[in-house]
Design brief:
Blueprint lengths: L2 H13 L3 H23 L2 H18 L10 H20 L20 H19 L3 H11 L5 H8 L3 H30 L1
């Protein structure tokens, strides 16, 4: 079990008045929040601005968080989700998921050929993700880019956790079909 999760309640209660406690929350949740925002917005600058705004709001409102009303991560991602929706309302852009651009650190450098294949796979996945509904893209992003549980997602989008599981199952099944269809089309075009 993660040290922060064991001490999360204590840290959250202290975060309103203790800069170090807030910094621990920030360091733990920042990558998850940023990944979700970037997956939804797809622009680095806008994603950074929204993520900063989320943590500014958290600083201002952390004293209003009540643990008995739900998990901190659900509260945090509800705020994040709402700020992303505000961004789209203000900018009048379509909400769609982009593939996470963050690369895993590795001691082995991939070859140029491997990088080209990876880039092509990302493009294919992006295209297939864009064919999902906005609701399905949002739920997929919350699950895989923010690493939230089905229950946490359900609380954010006001659905049952069973319904979230069904949506994820169908979305992943549809993505697999779309990717396989796209690969088959590429093979036909290459002949």
């Amino acid at each position: 079990m993660d040290y922060l999760l064991l001490k999360e309640k204590e840290i959250i209660l202290n975060a309103a008045n203790n800069e170090q406690a807030f910094l621990e929350l920030y360091e733990y949740y920042f990558p998850r929040v940023y990944n979700y925002v970037f997956a939804r917005v797809g622009e680095k600058g806008a994603s950074e601005d929204i993520t900063s705004g989320v943590f500014e709001k958290i600083i201002a409102k952390i004293s209003t968080y009540k643990p008995e009303c739900g998990k901190f991560s659900t509260w945090l991602f509800t705020i994040t989700h709402n700020m992303v929706m505000d961004y789209f309302r203000k900018s009048k852009k379509d909400a769609f998921i982009l593939v996470d651009q963050l690369e895993e650190e590795s001691s082995d450098q991939p070859s140029i050929e491997e990088l080209m294949i990876l880039e092509e796979d990302k493009k294919n996945l992006l295209m297939c993700l864009s064919l999902l509904s906005d609701r399905d893209r949002n739920i997929v992003s919350l699950k895989f880019w923010s690493q939230l549980s089905n229950q946490e997602i359900a609380e954010i989008v006001n659905e049952s956790s069973n319904h979230i599981a069904v949506i994820l199952y169908r979305s992943i099944k549809r993505l697999k079909t779309l990717i396989l269809d796209q690969e088959a089309e590429e093979v036909r075009n290459a002949r």
